[in-house]
Fold:
Amino acid sequence: CENNDWADNFLKYMSEHKVELDFFSYHLYASGPDKFITKNNIIKSLLDKYGYSDVEMILDEWNYLSNWTTEWHETMEVVTSNKGAAFLASVMSVSQDGPVDMLMYYDARPRVSYNGLFEFYKGAPLPQYYALYAWKNLVKLGAQVRSVVTDCPDVYVTSAVGEDGRCGVLVSFFTNDKNVVAKRKVEIEIDGKDIKETMSYVTDESHIYTQVPVDFSDGKTSIWLAPNSFVYIDIR
Structure:
């Protein structure tokens, strides 16, 4: 789970006894994407250290966590909110760009407390559901394209392109700082594409995957993201 010393000892023992591994799986519940970057890199370094560089890394249980005790209620509020959706989108983005091979979100079972995808009683989709929905749209396009974020702390981006030239850009803004309340201007530039039609889909405190027009000029646009929100931009 979260015991890196145990992982180190386990991998050392397996290596010394020349045991092959098909995969290495682990869990993480944490309060920000930075924690996932750190954990994924630690696991990768341990696998490299003991000769398992080609073994699949599977983060097979993960979600947001403030802590397991005094802030449990706050954790549950985040998981089912727009902040949880921004967290989910951000973690997927940093994991996509990192060494981890697979992510298994916990949990999608109806009437389970850690289910952040569906409302407890009615089963209606919650904001986190739409972060996965946006990610599905990127996957359907087929090929990730390089995305670079500069001078924009707490903003994460993943982009993809289809064989027909259609593009998708997922931009998330996640923060645990409750003093951050102002929207942030994010300037986006798409290189090497003749843009004909665009639409964005916003999830924040006031919207759940709501269509909001966005216009590009010479491949550039500016959007305003509220803290703990995400936007999926469909570009044709």
